[in-house]
Amino acid sequence: MSNITVQHVADTAVALVTIDDGKVNALSAEMIADLREAITTAEADPSLAAVVIAGRDDTFSAGFDLNVMRSGDVAAAVNLVADGGDLVRHTYVSEIPIVAACTGHALAAGALLLLGCDLRVGATGEFKIGVNEVAIGMVLPDWAMTICRERLSKRHLQRAVATARITDAATAVDVGFLDIAVEPDQVIVRAIEEAATFSALDRVAYAGTMRQFRGDVANTMARQIAADRATV
């Protein structure tokens, strides 16, 4: 797998998926595919109750691979963004809970990935969290607008999306990117603790509930992602 490791956390029903490319955890097509494979594998494993997606020190993910986004290859860029949409959608309706351990910066697609996760634990400190597309001359794709409207606080939606407001973890809890903010050295520990509590849930009931609870939004995202792919 590309720059990710997967381990079954001892004495828990939790799979810890760690992203670490040694840099900013850019979401390449390969990394996106490997993350989806890790989630799919966990969903098929009856010994697991939840997945934690963790970043590297100081960084959860700074977004899509800029080498592709700035390459001039329109088809490659469109498909990469659509792949990212499929990943966010997958996490959003996963058959088991997905917990994000946001170990630092989470920008653009990195912040969107947070929105797909069921519970998000972030690191306090001078880390940047938010969707900064408008500030860098980009328009969020329709699927991203959909998940933003669904997960972000209505009080903060205008500032977070239209004016690309970037916040720290404490403010990101109020905005809706995170649920819990803790000291950096406690992020993964707390995320695993939270994920372990989901072992009390019935997996079949959870999966069925998520289909009902989030199915309409997920179906909308699927249509929007397909429409994006059809443009190239």
Describe the model:
The chain is of the alpha/beta class and 232 residues long. The protein has a single domain (4-229), classed as 2-enoyl-CoA Hydratase, Chain A, domain 1. It has nine helices and nine strands. It has helices spanning 29-43, 66-69, 74-92, 109-116, 142-151, 157-162, 169-175, 187-196, 203-229; strands at 4-8, 14-19, 50-54, 58-61, 98-102, 104-107, 119-123, 129-130, 180-182. Strands 1-2-3-5-7-9 form a six-stranded mixed sheet, with helices on both faces. Strands 4-6-8 form a three-stranded parallel sheet, covered by helices on one side. Helix 1 (29-43) links the parallel strand 2 (14-19) and strand 3. Helix 5 packs antiparallel against helix 9. It is globular, with a radius of gyration of 16 Å. The mean pLDDT is 97.
Short structural summary:
The chain has 232 residues and is α/β, with parallel strands linked by helices. The chain contains nine helices and nine strands. α3 packs antiparallel against α9 and α5 (142-151) runs antiparallel to α9 (203-229).
